[in-house]
Input
Amino acid sequence: MKTIEELLSPIEKLTELNRVQIKKSMDAQQASAKKYVSLAEERFEAAKGIRDVVSFNAFIMDQVEFSRSSMEKMLLDSKAFLTEAKVYNEEMVKLIQEGNAVFKNKINEIKAIKQKPSK
Output
């Protein structure tokens, strides 16, 4: 039974890593979506304030700044996502290598047992 547990341990760790990563990703996406909804609502309210050419020009200038800051935020979010993905990938590769090592060790143990002369 210990052999099966040893073989399954890396798989269990990989499963847990995937569960945690999916939860983190979903939480981040949900927070991002809420933020973008809030920003869109703010811009809608600002647009409702347009009454003349001066307020229209002010709105347009705000939209330019909003677009610039939104692009910067998206770039930062993308960079953070890529960093997180890199860490996840490194952890996943490590767990797969660990699983392969455990599997190879068990195969070698079985071969060694089979090669022992019987008494």
